[in-house]
Structure formats: structure tokens, C-alpha cells
Write a structure and sequence with these properties.
11% strand, mainly alpha, single chain, globular
């Protein structure tokens, strides 16, 4: 471990420590000074022992684009649930699951993680692996009957990435994901 990463590891991360202390107090159900002090101490110890490298975020929130992203996600949830329900209650099960690779356009850990979560909450699609170099997601898709369905799923994941970055990204991030 280098000196700079060692210094970062032992740096006091106020937001994380306070959040963990609040969780501690809520778990105990008693807001006393001693309980808060123990929560702060445990929070500080957790941030040292279970240290994560900081993720740099230079974007800004765009409320209208966030609403659009939420609406698209709700539509995806509804249509995927209906498709799965049709298969579950149908007389014949005729599915061809598969794994596809989606090469992402953005080069940010934060966007990759959020995109993976957004894709995974939709029934029928699950992220099974991620790659940093080159930046990619491997998706298990419930039904891929032909090559057109594979390309549709890839295009859908890239469109979701673009909507995500439009919602929370910086101008440079937006330029990176434009086709």
C-alpha cells in the first residue's frame, strides 16, 4: 500500500461515520449520548477496517432527466413482469436464455455500478459479470430467440446508460456516451 493510499485509508470520513452512527442509534432504538458516541466510534472503525477507495463524481443532478429515467424504468419493470407472467402461466415454455456482452461508452465505476443495478432490478435480465478494462457488462437475458433480440437488448442497455448519464452526469460524461 502506497503512502498516499495509506493516508486516505486513515482519513476521517465524516459523512460515512455519521451515517453509520445514525444507523447504530436506530438499531438500538435509544438516542442517548453514550449510544451516539459508541456509534461514532464503531463508524470510524468500520471506515478504517472496511476501507473503500473514493469514487470521484463531478456530475450534477438533472431533475427532469431523473424523472424520465424513472418513467422508463417503471415501463421496463411493467413490460418485463408481464412478459414473465405470460411465460409462467403459458401452456408451453419456449425460451432461449443467453448471455450477452455490452461494451459501455462511459469510463466511470460509479455509472457502471448504477447501470448494473438498474438493469438487474428489471425481471428477466441480470448482470452476471462486469469488466473494468475494457468497460463492459455481461448480461444474462431470460429470452433471446434470435440475433435481433440480442441487438435489441444491447441497444436497450446502451440507451439506459445514456439516460442515466443524462440524469446525473457532467457535460463531459454526456459527450462520451453520445453515439
Amino acid at each position: 500500500m502506497s503512502d498516499s493510499s495509506r493516508r486516505l485509508r486513515f482519513r476521517f470520513q465524516a459523512r460515512s461515520v455519521v451515517f453509520l452512527a445514525i444507523v447504530w442509534v436506530l438499531l438500538w432504538g435509544e438516542a442517548s449520548l453514550l449510544n451516539l458516541a459508541v456509534g461514532l466510534l464503531l463508524g470510524w472503525l468500520i471506515t478504517i477496517v472496511l476501507w473503500l477507495a473514493p469514487i470521484r463524481y463531478y456530475g450534477r443532478l438533472h431533475p427532469w432527466r431523473i424523472l424520465i429515467l424513472a418513467a422508463v424504468m417503471l415501463k421496463d419493470l411493467a413490460t418485463a413482469s408481464l412478459q414473465l407472467m405470460k411465460v409462467a402461466f403459458g401452456r408451453r415454455i419456449d425460451i432461449r436464455p443467453g448471455i450477452i456482452r455490452v461494451d459501455l461508452r462511459s469510463d466511470s465505476d460509479l455509472y457502471q455500478v448504477i447501470l448494473g443495478e438498474l438493469i438487474s432490478i428489471v425481471p428477466g435480465t441480470l448482470v452476471v459479470e462486469t469488466r473494468r478494462r475494457p468497460r463492459a457488462l455481461y448480461l444474462h437475458v431470460f429470452d433471446l430467440p434470435d440475433e435481433a433480440a440480442v441487438e435489441h437488448e444491447r441497444a436497450h442497455a446502451l440507451a439506459l446508460e445514456r439516460r442515466l448519464i443524462d440524469a446525473i452526469g457532467s457535460a463531459d460524461d454526456k459527450e462520451a456516451v453520445r453515439p
